[in-house]
Amino acid sequence: MRSHIRLLSLVARATVVLLAIGAFLVVLGIFDDLLDWDIFSPATERFLRGIFGSCIALGGFGAAISVVLGIQEMVGSFRRLVDQARPGTAEPVTEASRRRYVAVLAGLLAVLVLTVVGLGAVNRRVEARRLEVFKLIAQDQMKQLGPRLAAEIGKIPAPCEACATPMLHEIFRTLDRLSFFQDVHLYLADPTDEAVLWRYPDVTPDVRTPVFERFFIARDDDRAVKLALSGDPAWLRQKNGGPGFVWYHVILDARRKPRAVVQIEGNPQESFREYEATAEAARAGRGGR
Questions:
Q1: What percentage of the chain exceeds 70 in pLDDT?
Q2: pLDDT score, position 206
Q3: Most buried by CB count within 10 Å: which residue of 25, 67, 192, 286?
Q4: CA dist 180 → 45, 117, 184, 186, 255 (Å)
């Protein structure tokens, strides 16, 4: 009997602790949202949301287990009353039963931890494969459309706001329709100002007709693009080999000099399993060169 009560008390205390942690995280999240704190990084916020969800889930199951154990204890108490009416039939409570319950709880906790760690490792492998497939698809698309882009860019002697050709519009409209691409932009250097780049299409939301946008170089990505257009693509190659869903393709002119850079941002939410065949074909084509 005592072992059952101890188990019920242990589960109830653990449930209270888990729900208290969940309540604390809720209050912390409210203040973070209302006061617009910039304390936690996006990764930390996702981690805290995972802890909150786990605490609420485990607390809910703990409450359900407490109810079940309470019912079991009531049934056990009734059975013991019946057994006491018949001397010699009551089962003695031993220390081994208490250790058995503790071992069961420890085993369940160990299984939970191993499951989370194992699934995390599997997810990292899946993400690495998804990223690899995306980059192979991006290379394949640029292999097909790169010559057409080079031809259209060759018709633009110097970048200006309204100098995009109809074929350039059509190519980018085609790329925008691809579900595994989230955003595609074309960058050109400004021949009159080293601190400026031109981007197509314009990212301004109220622009209905796609045009070229002139902007000053401010981000690391812009500097990497500028270096590539100046003949040093090492930084872009480093970014292409990184963990982000982004791919940069340098377009060369007739003299084999850098003329433009295409930036392709992949859709991290897309299921790339459907494009395995395309990725394998791109890999085979790259290996055959």
A1: 76
A2: 58
A3: 25
A4: 26, 29, 11, 18, 32
User: Which of the four pLDDT bands, split at 50, 70 and 90, describes residue 186?
Assistant: very high
Angle between helices 42-84 and 2-34 (to 10 degrees): 160
pLDDT tier at 197 (50, 70, 90 boundaries)?
very high
Q: Note the pLDDT tens digit of each residue in 237-272.
A: 999 999 889 999 999 988 889 999 999 999 888 877
Q: How far apart are CA 219 and CA 202, in angstroms?
A: 17
Domain boundaries, the chain: 2-93, 128-288
β-bridge partners, 200: 186
Number of Cβ within a 10 Å radius of residue 270: 19
Question: How many angstroms separate the Cα of 122 from the Cα of each of 131, 180, 246?
Answer: 14, 22, 22
Of 158, 215, 174, the C-alpha closest to 166 is: 174
The single-letter code of the amino acid at 79 is R
Q: What is the pLDDT of residue 214?
A: 92
Q: Single out the residue of 220, 165, 225 nearest to residue 190, CA to CA.
A: 225
- E strands present in 166-238: 181-189, 196-200, 213-216
CA dist 287 to 64, 85, 266, 280, 283, Å? 58, 84, 23, 10, 6
